[in-house]
Amino acid sequence: MVKFYAEYTDTFGGEANYSWVKRSNFEIRDNASMRSVLQRARKELGLTGAKGKIIGDFGDEYHWKPRNCCTILMVRVEI
Fold first, then answer.
1. Each residue's pLDDT tens digit, 19-63
2. Which stretches of 1-79 are assigned E, i.e. beta strand?
3. How far apart are CA 53 and CA 38, in angstroms?
4. How confident is the model at residue 79 (pLDDT cuts 50, 70, 90)?
């Protein structure tokens, strides 16, 4: 199992603003795909069913942006 840390926050000028933030920790199987990790993070933070796109894949961190919202979801491997 791999531990992940997720943050969902608002943006200002396209960058994370942190005027409010929701956080979650979760575990998922070792060989999980990026899609599975983001799906689980969205479930943990109440974003199930929201449409959006992946805007960053940095190997151990993923960024996802919902459509028509000034928010961002960042998920990273917890060390």
1. 999 999 999 999 999 999 999 999 999 999 999 999 988 988 999
2. 2-12, 15-28, 52-57, 61-66, 71-77
3. 10
4. confident
Stated as kind and residue range, the H or E segment containing 36 is helix 34-44
Range of the domain at 49: 2-77
- Rounded to two decimals, the pTM is 0.91
Structure tokens given for 28: 């998922």
- Which residues are CB-neighbours of 72 under 8 A, at least 6 positions away? 8, 9, 11, 16, 55, 63, 64, 65
Distance in angstroms (rounded) separating the CA atoms of residues 30 and 7: 21
Per the structure, how many domains does the chain have?
1
Task: Give the position of tokens 């990026």.
Answer: 34
DSSP at 49: T
Amino acid found at 67: R
